[in-house]
Structure formats: structure tokens, C-alpha cells
Design a protein that fits this description.
It is a single chain. This protein is an alpha/beta fold and 320 residues long. It is built from 14 helices and 8 strands. The chain has an 8-stranded mixed sheet with strand order 3-2-1-4-5-6-7-8, with helices on both faces. Helix 2 links the parallel strand 2 and strand 3. Helix 8 runs antiparallel to helix 9 and helix 8 crosses helix 12. The protein is globular and about 55 Å long.
Length: 320
């Protein structure tokens, strides 16, 4: 397939590398003004991957779109609306968009496919999401994992699963777009809470965090019209190891450094997603105690030890 990666950060550059390795014709697009693009274009490598000579690196969006049967977007979720305004001016008819990013729009609570649908006719330009566990640092070392592709377009997601699967990544076909998107975004918030527990030397409480977090997010998915069991799949619970425990997890690391009073200078999508989930909890009248606890700490300066202690150690609660 002819594929263009729109975004050349950690995930965008890895996906370009991966799809080139699996036999596809790949363009890697980025903004000329961004250092990550400049370095990649000059060196044809970054700290994660080395690009083969077959990958075309370009800052010309029209060129990237014209090449593509499939456009894979991998940028900050909060920048998607602005980017789609620009992308929608290109000729997208007959092409597909795949979102390889995890988030919910902070100001509106909209899922990312909803945002794309405001700018394109999804009948003519169908949209899918690619989510699930794994880190580029592990994949490039040959450590395999399983991921999921979901879409309202049945034909598209089956085609992508067949085209993208390999011994390194086995893809599953998602069956609940709402649950897949919400679960994938929400696991980053649980990852921040896990990092806070690490920073307070309370790692043993991650078991309670995992069980309660999954139930909490399943209630929200159900209220939004999705299948609550999606929270127990690859999009959410299946991504906990990579998000709540891995040294490579930006969200876990953010939470750990935050409670230690240290600054984390990389993108942690869970920060914006926390605010979006607080909004969704209010909109759908769903109690989200872990989400609200994280919000209290990062947005209102509440003592994380007090907040998390009240949540896990002091309140008498039924398990379910």
C-alpha cells in the first residue's frame, strides 16, 4: 500500500519504519519548522529508528496526501482539530485516515474520530483508529505485542488488519469504536495515577488502581453508548503494562515526577485527557474517582498523598 505518515515524532517515525519494513511504500511528513523533522531529514534517523533509503521524507503536505492510499496521523491529540482544518483543504476523496494517537479533545470532550468527521465526509474518506500496548523502544528490539484497529467502516478495518499485521505486531479487529477510543485515551490518566504511586513509594497499590480503574472507565464507556467490556480489552486494560509499569511510559513518568516536584518536558497526553474526562463524567453523570483525584492533584495543587490515601486506604467501599 501507499502510506503517508503525518507526524514524525516518536510514534510517527516508528510507524513509518515499521510499515516500510513490512513492504509498504512510505512517505514521512513533518513540519519544516520543527526540530524533530529537521533532524530526521538530515540524519534519516532519530533516537528510536533508522530510516531506509526507501522512505521519502517531506514537508510538502500535498505531496504526502497525493502519494497516500492511507494517511496515518500521529500528532498531539489536542492539535488534531487545527491540523484537520489544514488537511481538509487537500483532495482526500477515496483515501482513508488512520489515527494513531490516544486522547479526547480537552475543551469539548469529543473523541478524535468525531473531530475528523467534522472536517471530512467519512463515507468518502473513512476513518479508523490504531491503538493498543507497546513502545517503539521495545518494538525496534524485536519484542512483539498485540494492538487493535477499529472503525465504523468494517471493510476498512479488516483490510488494515490484514495489511499491517506481522510477527512483530499482531492486530485485532475492534468491535466498539466508542469504547476503543475512550478506553485508549483514559488509560493515560490511569498511567499518571500509577506514576504518582511510584513517586510516593506506593507501587504495591497499583493492583487496586488497575482493578478500580478498569471498572471506572467501563462505566463511562457504557454511559456514552459503547460496550463496557471494551475497557477490559487491548485498548485499556491490555495497555496497562505498557502505561502503568514501563520505564518508557510518558504518562507514568509524568505522574512520578509531578509528585516529586520535578518537571517532565515531554508530551503526556493524559494531562489534557484528565480534563476531558472530568467534563465527560459531568456530562454523562458518571462518578470517576480516579480521574477526579488526578485532576485535584495536577490542576488544583491538592496533596497527592492525602488524595490517594483517601482513595485507596481510608474509605470503606464495596469492591464492585
Amino acid at each position: 500500500m501507499n502510506i503517508s505518515l503525518l507526524g514524525c515524532g516518536r510514534w510517527g517515525s516508528f510507524i513509518a519504519w515499521y510499515l516500510d519494513k513490512t513492504g509498504h511504500s512510505v512517505y514521512s511528513w513533518g513540519l519544516e519548522s520543527e526540530k524533530v523533522f529537521q533532524d530526521l531529514k538530515r540524519e534519516r534517523k532519530n533516537m528510536y529508528v533508522n530510516f531506509s533509503d526507501d522512505i521519502v521524507i517531506t514537508s510538502d503536505l500535498t505531496q504526502a496526501v497525493e502519494h497516500a492510499e492511507v494517511m496515518i496521523i500521529s500528532i498531539s491529540s489536542q492539535a488534531l482539530s487545527g491540523f484537520m482544518e489544514k488537511l481538509s483543504k487537500e483532495n482526500l476523496h477515496g483515501k482513508a485516515i488512520v489515527l494513531c494517537m490516544k486522547g479526547i479533545e480537552e475543551g469539548t470532550g469529543k473523541r478524535l474520530t468525531q473531530i475528523v468527521g467534522e472536517y471530512v465526509d467519512t463515507e468518502k474518506t473513512p476513518v479508523a483508529v490504531w491503538v493498543g500496548p507497546g513502545h517503539p523502544q521495545d518494538f525496534v528490539r524485536g519484542i512483539p505485542n498485540c494492538m487493535v484497529i477499529d472503525s465504523e467502516n468494517e471493510q476498512l478495518k479488516i483490510k488494515l488488519v490484514n495489511e499491517f499485521s506481522s510477527e512483530l505486531i499482531r492486530f485485532y479487529i475492534g468491535k466498539d469504536l466508542i469504547g476503543t477510543e475512550v478506553g485508549a485515551a483514559a488509560k493515560n490518566v490511569i498511567g499518571i495515577a500509577a506514576g504518582m504511586l511510584d513517586g510516593m513509594n506506593c507501587t504495591s497499590l497499583k493492583g487496586a488502581l488497575m482493578s478500580r480503574g478498569t471498572m471506572e472507565i467501563s462505566r463511562l464507556i457504557k454511559a456514552m453508548g459503547g460496550n463496557e467490556l471494551s475497557a477490559f480489552g487491548l485498548c485499556h486494560l491490555g495497555d496497562y503494562e505498557a502505561t502503568l509499569f514501563s520505564q518508557f511510559s510518558h504518562n507514568r513518568r509524568f505522574g512520578e515526577m509531578f509528585v516529586k516536584g520535578e518537571r517532565f518536558d515531554k508530551l503526556a497526553e493524559g494531562v489534557s485527557t484528565t480534563n476531558a474526562l472530568v467534563k465527560l463524567g459531568e456530562m454523562y453523570n458518571v462518578d470517576l474517582p480516579i480521574v477526579n483525584a488526578v485532576s485535584q492533584v495536577i490542576n488544583f495543587g491538592k496533596d497527592p498523598r492525602q488524595i490517594l490515601s483517601d482513595m485507596f486506604l481510608r474509605k470503606i467501599k464495596n469492591e464492585f
